[in-house]
Design brief:
binds 3-methylbut-3-enyl trihydrogen diphosphate; about 70% helix; globular; 15 helices; two-stranded antiparallel sheet; binds magnesium ion
């Protein structure tokens, strides 16, 4: 039986240590901005996107070291998205990762700028070495990763999904429309995490395609599970408010499908995700375990 808790613990420590090493790149930044950036990054997320990136690299025979910068960049992008998602103009939430949200502590303007700075820092990490020197111009693999993450985070991915999320508030939409919204707002970055891991780990085209397919299903399952936790999770454990979606009239798994069908759907998606891992044999164990965790988690 795969020891997922041990695996997550070990890899999270490595990611946290790598994130910690990033801060000295930002010396010239005004302290309050750096404080706000660190406040949210260090508040204690699950580090799921870095973990998926690492597990994808390992599934194709690569090492966690090969993806550590990218794993950090993914977490910076994700953390920026949470800061902005919680703003009064968006979901207007007061708690995140068990702490008051960024705008509650630092004010809205600084929270917006901290998000901006985390997003751009991600691309600095991907394109520069420590000390600010650019990567080699023949480092085509990092260019590919930069393009992949930019597309996943921006108007072709997460930001478009966030836009749809806002525009569907209070509307009765179909599962097909909800799928599109969730694949964009959450699935895109998760799928990119897996693809980046596969590419940087040295995966071949078949392996990369399999991990993309796994990522599409797992990304959607992850957001449906998040929606379920917003209905029946424990605010202390999830570290953010429950009932927020219903209050805002959000289109979610439970609102579109009903709570029980949403849970069944998440399980079904995990089954589909896992079916793409066969080609990895026991190297796919961490990813298989992570996909079950994604829908069974309590936080
Ligand atoms: C929450 O993501 C936001 C969504 C995309 C649903 P996570 O549940 O991964 O949040 P952290 O990183 O653990 O705080
Ligand atoms: C957020 O979805 C997705 C992002 C891109 C940040 P939610 O609004 O459901 O995330 P939570 O529940 O606030 O973490
Ligand atoms: Mg939201
Ligand atoms: Mg939200
Ligand atoms: Mg949510």
């Amino acid at each position: 039986m795969f020891d997922l808790a041990g695996y997550m613990d070990q890899k999270c420590r490595k990611v946290d240590a790598a994130l910690e090493r990033l801060w000295d790149r930002f010396d010239p930044y005004p302290t309050v901005l750096l404080d706000a950036m660190q406040y949210s990054v260090k508040a204690g997320g699950k580090r799921l996107r870095p973990l998926l990136c690492i597990a994808a690299a390992e599934a194709v025979g690569g090492s966690d070291e090969a993806v550590m910068d990218t794993a950090c960049a993914l977490e910076l992008i994700h953390t920026y998205s949470l800061i902005h998602d919680d703003l009064p103009a968006m979901d207007d939430d007061d708690f995140r990762r068990g702490k008051p949200t960024s705008h509650k502590v630092f004010g809205e303007a600084t929270a917006i700028l901290a998000g901006d700075a985390l997003l751009t820092a991600a691309f600095e990490v991907l394109s520069c070495h420590r000390g600010g020197q650019c990567r080699d111009s023949n480092d085509s693999i990092h260019l590919e990763i930069i393009c992949l993450l930019a597309r996943a985070a921006g108007a072709s991915g997460m930001v478009q999904g966030q836009m749809l999320d806002l525009s569907f508030e209070g509307k009765d939409i179909s599962w097909e429309n909800l799928k599109t919204l969730q694949q964009l707002k959450t699935g895109a970055l998760i799928q990119a995490s897996l693809q980046a891991g596969a590419v940087l780990g040295g995966g071949n085209a078949e392996q990369v395609a399999a991990l993309r397919a796994y990522g599409a299903h797992v990304g959607l399952a992850f957001q449906v599970a998040d929606d379920v936790l917003d209905v029946e999770g424990d605010a202390q454990i999830i570290g953010k408010p429950v009932g927020s979606d219903q209050m805002l009239g959000k289109a979610t798994g439970p609102s579109v499908l009903g709570l029980e069908t949403a849970k069944t759907k998440a399980q079904e998606l995990v089954g589909l995700a896992v079916s793409h891992l066969d080609i990895f044999g026991n190297k796919g164990e961490a990813l298989a375990s992570l996909s079950h965790y994604i829908v069974e988690r309590d936080r």
